[in-house]
Design goal:
about 210 residues; mainly beta; 3 helices; about 10% helix
Length: about 210
């Protein structure tokens, strides 16, 4: 009977490679209409890891941890206000965290569904993104490099970020009323993977080639 029973299919092995997000070559920007103009800014400090399955990108995942205090809108006085409990309250909530739960194909791109925690509130979000190119080896460092670009629109009130004038009397009700409900987020992420091949000096490579030839 056991000989006639069908054999269980072996699980398809994942070919996951771990990429460390290089924030020196990554951009997390935001833009929000305010009064009669638009405030633009970015976060300048973060850490992240991308687990990328080259054979099946749907098996991949991404984790990002952004330092809220690194917000930079180009005006120090405004940045100080944004760090207070009128907005991000960075002393109480120092990080903004995104953890993907699944990646799904969408046309020519992908969607990363996951949990975003900001200002002490966790919400499910879906971030459309695409890989502009296949991972490739950098000619300078020898590391494998992965790039991904995405964008998403969020309602800041969903995360309890309402704005206020407790720490800045200039931010009066009239100005607060002209702040848009939604914020546009754009992402350009680059990760690197320093594998054995990237650490192999030319002299070792030459010896290996001679060994293979012999």
């Amino acid at each position: 009977a056991s000989a006639q029973a069908p054999r269980a299919k072996s699980p398809v092995p994942h070919t996951l490679r771990e990429y460390t997000v290089d924030f020196g070559h990554s951009i997390v920007e935001f833009s929000i209409p305010f009064a009669f103009s638009r405030v633009k800014g970015r976060f300048t400090s973060a850490k992240g890891t991308i687990l990328y399955d080259d054979a099946n990108p749907a098996n991949s995942s991404v984790t990002m941890v952004i330092e809220a205090k690194s917000i930079d809108t180009g005006w120090p006085h405004r940045d100080e206000h944004l760090r207070t409990d009128d907005f991000f309250d960075v002393d109480k909530y120092p990080t903004i965290v995104f953890q993907s739960e699944r990646l799904t194909r969408s046309g020519n791109g992908w969607v990363a569904d996951g949990q975003l925690t900001m200002h002490g509130v966790t919400k499910a979000v879906a971030i459309p993104f695409h890989f502009p190119r296949q991972p490739s080896r950098s000619p300078e460092s020898g590391w494998m490099v992965l790039n991904a670009d995405g964008a998403v629109r969020l309602k800041h009130a969903d995360f309890g970020i309402l704005g206020g004038s407790t720490h800045n009397a200039w931010f009066d009700k009239a100005r607060a009323a002209t702040m848009a409900d939604s914020v546009d987020i754009s992402l350009e992420v680059e990760g690197y993977s320093a594998d054995a091949a990237s650490q192999r000096p030319a002299s070792v490579e030459a010896v290996l080639q001679r060994v293979q030839a012999n």
